[in-house]
Amino acid sequence: MSAVREHFYIGGGWRSPASAATITVVSPNTEQAIGSVPDGTAADIDAAVAAARAAFDDPNGWSRWAPAQRADAMERLADALDKRAPQMIEAVSSQNGMPVAISEKLEAVFPQLLLRYYAGLLRQESFEETRPGLLGGSTLVTREPIGVVGAIVPWNFPQALASFKYAPGLAAGCTFVIKPSPETVFDSYVLAEAIDEAGIPAGVINIVPGGREVGAYLVEHPGVDKIAFTGSTAAGRSIAEACGRLLRPVTLELGGKSAAIILDDADLDLVRIGEQLFSATLLNNGQTCFLGTRVLAPRSRYQEIVDVFTGLAASLQVGDSLDPKTQIGPMASARQRDRVESYIAKGRNGGARITVGGGRPQGLDNGWFVEPTIFADVDNSSTIAQEEIFGPVLSLIPYCGDDEAIRIANDSTYGLGGSVWTSDHDRGVELARRVSSGTIGINNYLPDPTAPFGGVKSSGLGRELGPEALSAYTVAKSIYL
Ligand code: NAD
């Protein structure tokens, strides 16, 4: 993929940027420039917020449309995205190194799934009810769209994570300014073209790629009513502070360091569970927020589990993200590879034992590749067990008994995902209840559109997905009758 874009999608059309600055996109596979887009500035955000504001405030506009009319438009957007699936897969995978085998299942599918799911909810939901009161009268309780939303998304799943925000928000009647990460911009133009084709009214979704200053400017913009953020915990804290000061509603989907708890009765046959284990611990080159990157292994089966994970990591095909056979592609940026390699060095220096990987793969001299790496004998208090690495690196931590497994799992500042691996379903569910996290899977980890997704502790505030997310884009109003 190579592309040069010269405009932003603002107010339902292609608008010239306020400055001549550009973002150069560099291929993680080759380290060569593959194109550029304009770099958003405060003036571009002003224009995008003005367009979103006008669309929201239009008395005959999107927020006032009948729910079924919005649902129809959302389904048209899903259809327009379906048509563009090949471009979307290529755009995402050529920029962030996500293997196409993954982008074709997630980035080119999840947004449509969510748009259709929320369109379906919209057809069933009533946004108002009349309640008999206790004091003689009654109350008309309405749920109104919250307003203009600033949606700030990271590079790791740029389209799926944007749709976590705009799909429920559009259903509620909100309008959007989306700010993609500088690492993943081309895919946002594919989305813009689909929005255009679907006949979503002008200004309902506006897109301005840019860096963190532009993101921070959007967060504080007086024309914005809510911020929906996915990204690092450090950025989330600073956004939360700004939103606290402004009393602006905010959802924060942040980092994680989840536990994959292997119980002593787990089925560890890679033929049967290899795909699920891979998805729960290493998906997208390890650059996924919910992964169980701390693998808790019972001492009674410790050596066997070290061998299973060593075998799994050694078997993975590392290569160009655009090759359908690739299972682990390059890191998204040089900075990201530096970060992963610095953690591998910290693990080594801290006394953990590397059983496989630890370096750069042979024969891949260009591109930001890192070998899938397994650390055994890791202490849960060590840096590699406490901090988010965001690469294909797992820490194996031994434990004795279920209580110790829970204690170690919960000994983390994060609480986003996790998994329990067992042949006894009920035992797995009971243990899952005791893990401090917003989500957790049994013998798998697969977020579903119908169920709330989000974190506790340093993993964030609020929930995306499910009917819960639709509520989060509305505000209740009581009209006493
Ligand atoms: P990042 O926080 O550096 O950037 C995320 C987005 O926020 C980008 O668009 C960036 O430009 C913008 N941004 C950065 N600082 C900002 C600020 N102060 N104000 C406003 N905008 C700002 O994160 P990243 O490196 O792009 O993404 C990786 C992180 O995202 C990891 O920590 C990962 O765990 C997290 N993540 C969380 C989830 C989740 O659902 N919980 C999902 C995916 C990724």
Automatic annotation (TrEMBL):
Pfam families the UniProt entry points to: Aldedh
Protein name: Aldehyde dehydrogenase
Protein family membership: Belongs to the aldehyde dehydrogenase family.
The Aldehyde dehydrogenase domain, residue ranges: 14-479
Active-site residues (renumbered): 253
Signal peptide: none
PROSITE patterns with a match to the protein in the record: ALDEHYDE_DEHYDR_GLU
PANTHER family linked to this entry: ALDEHYDE DEHYDROGENASE, ALDEHYDE DEHYDROGENASE-RELATED
Species for this entry: Nocardia jiangxiensis
Key words, A-Z: Oxidoreductase
InterPro entries (alphabetical): Ald_DH/histidinol_DH (IPR016161), Ald_DH_C (IPR016163), Ald_DH_CS_GLU (IPR029510), Ald_DH_N (IPR016162), Aldehyde_DH_dom (IPR015590)
